[in-house]
Design brief:
Blueprint lengths: L14 H9 L5 H17 L4 H29 L11 H4 L4 H25 L3 H17 L11 H22 L4 H24 L1 H7 L4 H5 L1 H20 L19 H8 L8 H23 L1
C-alpha cells in the first residue's frame, strides 16, 4: 500500500538524501575553519606539509561526521528527535534503524582512529591521547548513561574541541609545538562554534525541554539565549582583533561582519522554529568567512 501524502506536507527525503542530511554536511565549516586557522599559524611560524594536512582532515572529519551519526543514534533512542523541527534525523524519523546509524558512526570513528595511528607513528605518540579524547568526547556528548550534552556542558565541549583543540592540534601536527598565537586564534573559533550550536539549541528549546535535554538554551530561556548568541558573535570578533598587536593583518576579519547581520537579525528579531534554520545556515557561512579571513591574516 502506498503512503498517503497530506496536501501541503513536506516531501520525505530519499534514503540517500536522508543519510546526507544525517551527516550534517552544512555544518562542516565548524570543522574546516579551525583547521584552516591552525594551518595558517603553522605556515607563518614554519612550514606546512601537505600529507600532514591530509591526515589532519581525515582524522577530524572521521570523528566529526562519526559523532554526528552517534548523536543521531543516542538522541534517537532517547526520543529527543521525535518531534524535531530542523533537518531530518535518521533514527528519530525512522529513515534508518538505530543499529545501522550506530555502526556507521563507529565505522567513521575507525577511519579517524587509523589516521590518528598513522600520525602517532610518524609525528608524535601524544596524538593517540588526542584520538582517545576526541572519541570519548564525541560519544559521551549524547551517549552513555549520563551524557554531558544533556547537562548544559555542550557549549563548553564545542568551545574546547572546535576551538582550542582543533586549532592547537592542527598547528602541533605541523610544527611539533603550539605557539601562543594558536591558543589565541582558537578562542574566536570556539566562540563562533558555540554561536552555531546556540542557533540549533534555541530552535529546539521546546523539544529538548520535553525530552529532558537541558542545554544552555533551555537553562537560559528563549530571551536570554538570543542575547547570549549576540554576545558570542561579538566576543568572537573582539577575540580575533585582540591578536592584532602581534598579527596586524588579522584586522581582515572585520570584513566578515556583514555576514553576521542576517543571523543576528533573525535571532534577535524573535524567529522561532523552522524560521531559525536560515540563522543556523548563515552562522555556518559566518564561520567560513571569518575563518578564511583570520587564516589569511595569520599567514601574512
Amino acid at each position: 500500500m502506498s503512503a498517503t501524502i497530506r496536501p501541503g506536507a513536506p516531501e520525505r527525503p530519499s534514503a540517500v538524501r536522508a543519510w546526507l542530511l544525517g551527516a550534517r554536511l552544512k555544518t562542516l565549516p565548524v570543522t574546516l575553519a579551525p583547521i584552516a586557522v591552525g594551518t595558517a599559524v603553522a605556515a607563518a611560524d614554519g612550514s606546512v606539509r601537505a600529507w600532514r594536512t591530509a591526515l589532519t582532515l581525515l582524522f577530524a572529519l572521521g570523528f566529526v561526521l562519526g559523532t554526528n551519526f552517534l548523536n543521531d543514534y543516542s538522541d534517537g533512542i532517547r526520543g529527543a528527535d521525535d518531534n524535531r523541527v530542523g533537518p531530518v534525523r535518521l533514527v528519530g524519523s525512522g529513515r534508518a534503524s538505530a543499529r545501522q546509524v550506530l555502526r556507521f558512526g563507529l565505522a567513521l570513528y575507525g577511519v579517524a582512529t587509523v589516521a590518528g595511528l598513522v600520525m602517532a607513528v610518524t609525528i608524535s605518540w601524544w596524538l593517540l591521547a588526542l584520538a582517545a579524547l576526541c572519541a570519548l568526547g564525541g560519544w559521551f556528548y549524547t551517549g552513555g548513561a549520563s551524557p554531558y550534552g544533556y547537562r548544559s556542558l555542550g557549549d563548553v565541549s564545542i568551545f574546547v574541541f572546535h576551538g582550542i583543540i582543533a586549532v592547537c592540534a592542527t598547528t602541533f601536527i605541523q610544527l611539533h609545538r603550539v605557539p601562543a598565537t594558536a591558543v589565541g586564534a582558537g578562542v574566536p573559533m570556539g566562540l563562533l562554534a558555540c554561536a552555531l550550536l546556540t542557533t540549533n539549541n534555541l530552535r529546539d528549546i521546546p523539544t529538548d525541554s520535553a525530552a529532558g535535554k537541558i542545554t544552555v538554551a533551555v537553562r537560559l530561556g528563549e530571551r536570554r539565549t538570543r542575547v547570549y548568541y549576540a554576545l558570542l558573535v561579538a566576543a568572537a570578533f573582539a577575540a580575533a582583533l585582540a591578536l592584532a598587536p602581534q598579527r596586524p593583518a588579522v584586522l581582515l576579519v572585520v570584513a566578515a561582519a556583514p555576514v553576521a547581520v542576517l543571523p543576528l537579525r533573525l535571532v534577535l528579531g524573535g524567529a522561532r522554529g523552522a524560521a531559525l534554520i536560515p540563522a543556523l545556515e548563515h552562522t555556518c557561512w559566518l564561520l567560513l568567512a571569518f575563518g578564511a579571513l583570520l587564516s589569511t591574516g595569520l599567514a601574512l
